[in-house]
């Protein structure tokens, strides 16, 4: 077993070794797995992160653009880290949304955030550095998604990973919110989907 800190170092180093073309190849395979595995057309809101290219994150734009092109009834929401450094606000993202990179290179939408209580994500695509065969994940260590997911227990929690799982993360704690599933380029890992979610 490895700790989160160990896995964070290992996976960040491994990602740096990936060529951009390999990131795109794996991201395209991951997107195909996602659309094949989940009833995306039945959802009203899909929440997703926007990728940081220099971090070699999965390219979620491949999913977003396909939703825009093929599923006009499905709205996309994206998060923005607030100035307090611990909370997120969420914005509706469509083809007309203006984006400006923040200090971390993450594109952020302009305009007004979605008021709490006016929307509910059917599924949340979650960034991660590693995940294990029990559905636990290693993020960047800030806890943004654990707090957000705890507020939306009905949402399907789907990790996106360019790499397969590790056997087990050693230092899981009670505040960690586990995944319902994780999509990789090769397959979809499932960890107990809620009654109304998944396929």
TrEMBL record:
InterPro entries: FTHF_cligase, FTHF_cligase-like_sf, NagB/RpiA_transferase-like. It holds the Pfam family 5-FTHF_cyc-lig. Its cofactor is Mg(2+). Its EC number is 6.3.3.2. It comes from the Bacteria. Keywords: ATP-binding, Ligase, Magnesium, Metal-binding, Nucleotide-binding. Substrate binds at residues 50, 57. GO terms for biological process: folic acid-containing compound biosynthetic process; tetrahydrofolate interconversion. This is 5-formyltetrahydrofolate cyclo-ligase. It catalyses: (6S)-5-formyl-5,6,7,8-tetrahydrofolate + ATP = (6R)-5,10-methenyltetrahydrofolate + ADP + phosphate. Belongs to the 5-formyltetrahydrofolate cyclo-ligase family.
């Amino acid at each position: 077993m490895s700790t989160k800190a160990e896995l964070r170092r290992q996976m960040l180093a491994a990602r740096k070794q990936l060529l951009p073309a390999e990131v795109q190849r794996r991201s395209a395979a991951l997107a195909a797995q996602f659309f094949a595995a989940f009833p995306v057309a039945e959802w009203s809101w899909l929440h997703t992160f926007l990728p940081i290219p220099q971090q070699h994150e999965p390219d979620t734009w491949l999913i977003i653009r396909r939703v825009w092109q093929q599923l006009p009834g499905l709205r996309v929401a994206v998060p923005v880290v607030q100035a307090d450094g611990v909370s997120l606000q969420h914005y509706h993202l469509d083809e007309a949304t203006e984006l400006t990179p923040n200090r971390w290179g993450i594109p952020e939408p302009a305009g007004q955030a979605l008021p709490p209580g006016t929307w509910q994500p059917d599924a949340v695509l979650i960034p991660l550095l590693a995940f294990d065969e029990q559905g636990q994940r290693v993020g960047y260590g800030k806890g943004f998604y654990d707090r957000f997911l705890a507020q939306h227990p009905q949402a399907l929690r789907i990790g996106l990973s360019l790499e397969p799982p590790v056997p087990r993360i050693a230092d899981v704690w009670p505040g960690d919110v586990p995944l319902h599933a994780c999509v990789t380029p090769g397959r979809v890992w499932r960890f107990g989907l809620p009654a109304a979610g998944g396929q």
